[in-house]
Write a structure and sequence with these properties.
4 strands; 0% helix; 70 residues; 4-stranded antiparallel sheet; mainly beta
Length: 70
């Protein structure tokens, strides 16, 4: 079995650990419009405790009021 260690930071702030999961998705409550969220994920083989290299992604939450009207 594989679990995933996930950490998250907002707008370049300090990273905080999120609960480990064996699922392929997570939910982030109360996201802030206009903020950038960076996630780092490490896969962990539960039988050997071997860890992958970290993978990272950044996501910016768009402000719907900034969209141009057509």
């Amino acid at each position: 079995n594989v679990s995933f260690a996930v950490s998250m930071s907002v707008d370049g702030g300090e990273a905080t650990s999120m609960p480990s999961t064996s699922g392929l998705s997570i939910s982030v409550p109360n996201v802030q419009v206009g903020s950038t969220y960076q996630f780092q994920v490490i896969a962990i083989d539960e039988s050997t405790n071997q860890k992958s290299d970290p993978a990272s992604v950044s996501i910016q939450i768009p402000d719907p009021t900034d969209e141009e009207e057509e």
